Amino acid sequence: MSAHLAVLSRAGWILSQRVSRSIIYRADLNHMKDTIQFLAHDCCAGHPDVCEPLMASLCNTAPKEI
User: Which InterPro entries does this chain map to (predicted)?
Assistant: First the structure.
């Protein structure tokens, strides 16, 4: 499991925080949102109306900071 988490961490998909002897991992939602926006923009090139609802929901949603 740690090998998979290390790969995800290096790719920027997850964040880690040390708590005593444990490491807490959580998803980096901003990175995921940016990636989805890029993929939707690239996928819908020439037909932005197809992805407009998705793009609008991603642009107007800010994840809560923990």
Answer: WH-like_DNA-bd_sf, WH_DNA-bd_sf
pTM of the shown model: 0.58
Q: In this structure, what token pair is assigned to residue 29?
A: 């939602």
> What is the distance between the alpha carbons of residues 19 and 64, in angstroms, rounded to a whole number?
21
Question: What are the tens digits of pLDDT across the range 46-65?
Answer: 676 777 777 777 766 555 55
Higher pLDDT, 12 or 50: 12
Q: How many CA atoms lie within 13 A of 1 on its CB side?
A: 3
- Give the Cα separation of 45 and 25 in Å (integer): 34
DSSP-assigned letter for residue 1: -
Amino acid, single-letter form, for residue 29: L
Domain ranges, ordered by start, for the chain: 2-59
Q: Residue 25 pairs with which residues in a beta bridge?
A: 16
